């Protein structure tokens, strides 16, 4: 989309230079008295005070020409302000609005909304049957939308699907290729389906995904990780603005997952591609994603950054103390500091207002002959946060 092009900012700067370059700053030219044509006495302007006229001739502002006789005073002139360059608005490349999918009386996806912006990596998390795959199928045209809509680069998926889908590349789970053809020939086959994709683009996407040295080898000799890379290369052939990946790391080993993560970050941060990725490997999503969307029972229950999700998570407490008498320690913390504590194994979790209170609690416990083995702030993993949010949602649903 042109609105994200950096040329828009440069255009404002170039316009300013053109305006200033239209004026002359030659000292000799400023000192030269301007020529005047003869005028009849009736046309002569009222004489200006001598001292004021000399003052205005001496001072020449960068955006003004020298004063001429008969020219109105600066206070009488309408002030022309140079238009400020317009700041490009940040528009979403994917805007999901009240998207719903209904099968009979069951809602697989129930009125969900979220947005994605250029260069973002967004994790789409949920348990099996939560609605992740159904949402992805609606976005890619594999399932009909019951109600609501999704806009891809401004085009409606429901009303202008062909224009919308031209901006999307997708890989759903394990891609299928012809094993007896080379990676290059497989991509060439799919390039004919996409249209307007030449060999230079094929070689470019192969390099992007790290298959430049093996692209001429037969796919039958590829490892699972290399096939996943080839699947991403296929999705990138048409230069999409949005890349949708459904469980792309299934079957990969630890090294393959790490290489896949590095590749996706390069696509997002260097190529500006927005990536929507669903996965069950929460630890890897924590290292990969900028934003997280959590869906449960067809409804989105959390949309936030990783930092905000951890900050808002109150699973047990933000601080912990590991000691030999956790139950007794919890009672003392409540009595002395009026802070509720939660006991898990030999650790006491609580929310202290600051680190000074945490230090005071440790001193108080040692004075009461409690052995403190360790203390600090709790760093929740994405798995902890995810399970906590899902459990809270299930509890509230059962109560309602």
How would a crystallographer describe the biggest sheet? Answer: 6 strands, mixed
**Got a strand count?**
14
Mean pLDDT across all residues, rounded?
78
Radius of gyration: 33 Å
Order of helices and strands: HHHEEEHEEHEHHHEHEHEEHEHEEHEH
Distance between the termini: 44 Å
In spatial order, strands of the major sheet run 6-7-8-3-9-10
| Percent in helix | 25-40%
Unreliable spans are 1-43, 51-65, 74-88
**What percentage of amino acids are in beta strands?**
15-25%
The outline comes out as: elongated
Structural class given helices, strands, pairing? alpha/beta
Tally of helical segments = 14
Detailed description of the structure:
This protein is α/β, with parallel strands linked by helices and 400 residues long. 38% of the residues lie in helices and 20% in strands. The chain has 14 helices and 14 strands. Helix 6 packs across helix 7 (199-208) and helix 7 (199-208) packs across helix 8 (224-236). The longest helix has 18 residues, at 254-271. 29% of the residues are buried.
Indicate the topology:
Elements: H1 7-21, H2 27-31, H3 50-58, E1 94-103, E2 106-116, E3 121-125, H4 132-139, E4 147-152, E5 155-156, H5 161-165, E6 168-172, H6 183-194, H7 199-208, H8 224-236, E7 242-246, H9 254-271, E8 274-278, H10 282-288, E9 291-296, E10 299-305, H11 306-312, E11 319-323, H12 326-337, E12 341-344, E13 347-350, H13 355-367, E14 372-377, H14 382-399
Parallel strand pairs: 3-8, 3-9, 6-7, 7-8
Antiparallel strand pairs: 1-2, 1-4, 4-5, 9-10, 11-13, 11-14, 12-13
Helix pairs in contact: 6-7, 7-8
């Amino acid at each position: 989309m042109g609105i994200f092009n950096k040329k828009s900012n440069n255009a404002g700067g170039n316009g300013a230079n053109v305006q200033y370059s239209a004026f002359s700053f030659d000292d000799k030219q400023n000192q030269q008295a301007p020529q005047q044509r003869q005028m009849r006495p009736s046309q002569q302007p009222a004489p200006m005070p001598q001292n004021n006229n000399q003052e205005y001739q001496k001072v020449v502002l960068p955006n003004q020409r020298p004063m001429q006789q008969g020219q109105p005073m600066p206070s009488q002139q309408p002030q022309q302000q140079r238009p400020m360059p317009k700041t490009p608005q940040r528009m979403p490349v994917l805007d999901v609005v009240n998207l719903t999918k209904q099968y009979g009386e069951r809602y697989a996806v129930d009125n969900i909304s979220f947005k994605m912006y250029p260069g973002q990596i967004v994790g789409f998390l949920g348990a099996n049957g939560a609605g992740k795959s159904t949402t992805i199928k609606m976005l890619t045209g594999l399932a009909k939308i019951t109600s609501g809509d999704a806009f891809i680069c401004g085009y409606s998926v429901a009303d202008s699907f062909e224009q919308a889908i031209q901006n999307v590349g997708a890989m759903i789970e394990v891609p299928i290729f012809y094993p007896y053809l080379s990676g290059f020939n497989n991509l060439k086959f799919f390039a004919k389906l996409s249209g307007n994709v030449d060999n230079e683009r094929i070689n470019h996407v192969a390099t992007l995904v790290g298959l430049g040295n093996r692209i001429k080898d037969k796919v039958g000799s590829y490892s699972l990780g290399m096939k996943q890379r080839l699947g991403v290369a296929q999705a990138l052939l048409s230069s999409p603005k949005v890349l949708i990946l459904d469980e792309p790391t299934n079957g990969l080993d630890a090294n393959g997952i790490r290489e896949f993560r590095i590749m996706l970050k390069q696509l997002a941060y260097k190529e500006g591609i927005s990536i929507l990725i669903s996965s069950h490997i929460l630890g890897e999503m924590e290292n990969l994603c900028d934003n997280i969307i959590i869906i449960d029972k067809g409804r989105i229950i959390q949309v936030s950054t990783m930092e905000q999700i951890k900050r808002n998570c109150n699973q047990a407490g933000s601080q912990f103390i590991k000691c030999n008498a956790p139950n007794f320690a919890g009672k003392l913390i409540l009595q002395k500091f009026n802070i509720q504590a939660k006991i898990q194994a030999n650790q006491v979790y609580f929310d202290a207002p600051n680190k000074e209170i945490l230090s005071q609690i440790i001193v108080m416990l040692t004075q009461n002959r409690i052995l403190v083995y360790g203390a600090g702030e709790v760093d929740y993993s994405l798995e902890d946060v995810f399970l906590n949010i899902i459990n809270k949602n299930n509890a509230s649903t059962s109560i309602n």
